[in-house]
Amino acid sequence: MIAAITTAGVAAGASLLGYNCFSPTSQLYGRTVTYCPQSDQLALTYDDGPNDLHTERLLELLSERQVRATFFLIGNFVRARPQIARAIAAGGHVIGNHTQSHPNLLLLSSRGIRQEISDSSKAIADVVGANVSWFRPPFGARRPLVLRIARELGLKPVMWSATCFDWKATTAAVIEANARHKIDGERRRGHIVLLHDGGHSQLGADRSHTVEASRLLIERYQREYRFITVDEM
Ligand SMILES: [Zn+2]
Cα of 194 to ligand 1 centre, how many Å? Predict the structure, then answer.
C-alpha cells in the first residue's frame, strides 16, 4: 500500500526531492523498470502478499485465464504462509522481493535497508527454493542508496506506470477504471500495473475487489495485449 506515504510525499512535496522519491516513473535516482518493453504488453503486478484467501483466489483466476503475473512478497508473510508462496511459484508466476517487513526504506540506515532486503530474499529462497532477482521498494519509496543496495544484493528495481489505487477503492469497477485511465491514456506504452493481493500491515486484508478488477482487466485487454511477467521484459 502506498496511500499514506504518497499523500505525505505529495504534501511535502513541493520539494523536488520528495516528489522524486515517490513518483513511480521518476528516473532521477537511477534507472528502474517502469514500463514493459513493447507497446502491446501489459504486466500485472501484485504487492504485499502472500495473503490468505485473496492470493489463492487470484491464483485460480490467473490459472483459468492462463495469465502469468509478478508478485512482490513481504518476507514475514512468506514465512507465515509458505504454502501460498509456493502456490504462486507453482502457478508459473514470478516472485519479487518487497522487503521483510514493509518499512519506509527512506527512514532506515544502510544497514537496516540491507537487512530488510536480504532477509526477504532469504525467506523466499528458503520457502520457495528460488533465487529472487527483482525488487520493489515499499510505498515506492527509494533513493540512490536504496537502489544501490538492492543492486549489490543482485536485485533489479521494478516500479510501475499504472497505479490502480486498489488499497482504497470501494469497488472493482473503480479499480479497473483507474487502470484503464492510464492504459488507454497512453496506448503507445506497455504498462506495468500496480495492484495488491495483500495489505502490508497484516495478513487477511480483504482484496476481493482487486481479484474482481483483475478479471475485468484481463477480459478487457486480453485480445489487444499480451500479459507478461517481469522475467519476460
Ligand atoms: Zn507494498
Answer: 10
